[in-house]
């Protein structure tokens, strides 16, 4: 395979990149951090200036990389592959709270796959060796080819277990009808004992352990996954002293999961509050089912947050889940006086979002 040299300015680091490899992949594997979020050409976080050389721009969404930007020589490192030696210039600032762990390939064995909520599975994978990652990061799975002629693809799922558990990784996967990775694999073919291939860790949606301001965490559906990793990490080692409130949104109780585990953590830690929120179930229905309705917020998660707080200035926000929910939560936090610079988001984009749903305000960190 032909390789080319990628020079990353302003630091002048040189990385070898194969012709069928993306620039981001080569750099992350070499331990050279480049900004990125979705790694699927949707969010535009990895956009950089090309100073020299030729690239194949790959499957960059035309919304994430617009025509005029292509003309200006910009590229998305998660999609672009070199066609000769290339020089790029990127914003290489790494959060102080983040360790840079080089991306690598892993083989794992599925040790647990169970239903935990409606259309939601927990998958635990025992890796062939230890992995280092920051709480909140994700892995990229290789979804095998299928009998219907679908080729191998990769799909990203966030690590829900804390970094201290470095060989058994937990994932929460929500089914998407017609989706290659979920409907076509995790929910139909994947079984305990199966071997899976994955690479990682990726992403910069990580817990800022050095920042002890009140963290307002909002997870829609399986958006709880990276937040669970952050919370267990923060509460587990005892070094994080900030307050954390987790809002977990679901239509009804059967759409929420790990409620008992979060309640246990809440009982054990004064600095953790858990607010499960039900948008389509009422207090009366919960009581009629014999459960204490006081343990829940009722309405959209954003309405519950707004009812709980007059202002959120001085807090930080961590938002994760379907893009529409993340957008709505962002507006709510900003209306409660939380600055965009203090809000971090992870949008669970899928293939359908490549048609334009992916690019959000450049003010908000991913
Ligand atoms: C950083 C990150 C972390 C994530 N973490 C999690 C997680 O922890 N848990 C979780 O459940 N999800 C997570 N996701 C979402 C996950 O990566 C997948 O997108 C999701 O699981 C659906 O994958 P899929 O292969 O089943 O669906 P896809 O194959 O992506 O399809 C999704 C939908 O789009 C349709 N579609 C497919 N191709 C196209 C096309 N070309 N045009 C229009 N529509 C199309 C399909 O029919 C389907 O309805 C994360 C996403 C990101 C970016
Ligand atoms: S990381 Fe490249 S577009 Fe999202």
TrEMBL record:
Protein's UniProt keywords contain Flavoprotein: yes
All residue ranges annotated as the 2Fe-2S ferredoxin-type domain in the record: 4-94
Pfam family, one: NAD_binding_1
Alphabetized InterPro entries for the sequence: 2Fe-2S_ferredoxin-like_sf, 2Fe-2S_ferredoxin-type, 2Fe2S_fd_BS, Beta-grasp_dom_sf, Cbr1-like_FAD-bd_dom, FAD-bd_FR_type, Flavoprot_Pyr_Nucl_cyt_Rdtase, FNR_nucleotide-bd
Segments forming a coiled coil: none
Highest taxon listed in the record's lineage: Bacteria
UniProt cross-references to PROSITE patterns, sorted A to Z: 2FE2S_FER_1, 2FE2S_FER_2, FAD_FR
Record's keyword terms, sorted: 2Fe-2S, FAD, Flavoprotein, Iron, Iron-sulfur, Metal-binding, Transport
Domain FAD-binding FR-type: 103-208
GO molecular function: 2 iron, 2 sulfur cluster binding; oxidoreductase activity
Name this protein carries in UniProt: Phenol hydroxylase P5 protein
Natural source organism: Marihabitans asiaticum
Lineage: Bacteria, Bacillati, Actinomycetota, Actinomycetes, Micrococcales
């Amino acid at each position: 395979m032909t390789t080319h040299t990628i020079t990353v300015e302003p630091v002048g680091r040189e990385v070898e990149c194969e012709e069928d490899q993306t620039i981001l992949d080569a750099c992350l594997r070499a331990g050279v951090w480049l900004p990125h979020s979705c790694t699927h050409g949707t969010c535009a976080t990895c956009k950089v200036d090309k100073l020299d050389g030729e690239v194949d721009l790959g499957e960059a969404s035309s919304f994430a990389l617009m025509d005029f930007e292509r003309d200006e020589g910009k590229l998305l490192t998660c999609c672009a592959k070199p066609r000769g030696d290339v020089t790029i210039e990127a914003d290489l600032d790494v959060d102080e709270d983040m360790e840079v762990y080089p991306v690598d390939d892993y083989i794992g064995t599925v040790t647990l796959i169970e239903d935990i909520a409606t259309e939601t599975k927990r998958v635990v994978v025992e890796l062939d060796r230890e992995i280092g990652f920051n709480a909140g990061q994700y892995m990229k799975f290789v979804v095998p080819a299928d009998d219907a002629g679908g080729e191998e693809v990769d799909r990203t799922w966030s690590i829900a277990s804390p970094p201290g558990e470095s060989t058994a990784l937990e994932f929460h996967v929500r089914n998407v009808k017609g989706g290659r990775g979920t409907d076509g694999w995790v929910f139909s073919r994947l079984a305990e004992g199966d071997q899976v291939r994955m690479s990682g860790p990726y992403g910069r949606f990580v817990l800022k352990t050095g920042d002890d301001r009140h963290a307002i965490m909002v997870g829609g559906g399986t958006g709880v996954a990276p937040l669970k990793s952050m919370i267990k990490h923060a509460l587990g080692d005892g070094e994080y002293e900030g307050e954390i409130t987790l809002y977990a949104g679901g239509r009804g109780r059967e759409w929420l999961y790990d409620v008992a585990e979060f309640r246990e953590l809440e009982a054990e830690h004064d600095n953790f509050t858990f607010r499960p929120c039900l948008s389509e179930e009422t207090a009366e229905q919960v009581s009629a089912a014999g459960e204490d309705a006081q343990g829940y917020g009722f309405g959209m998660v954003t309405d519950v947050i707004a009812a709980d707080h007059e202002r959120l200035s001085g807090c930080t926000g961590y938002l994760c889940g379907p893009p529409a929910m993340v957008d709505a939560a962002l507006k709510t936090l900003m209306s409660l006086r939380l600055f965009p610079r203090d809000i971090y988001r992870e949008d669970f984009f899928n293939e359908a979002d490549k048609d334009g749903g992916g690019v959000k305000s450049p003010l908000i960190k991913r």
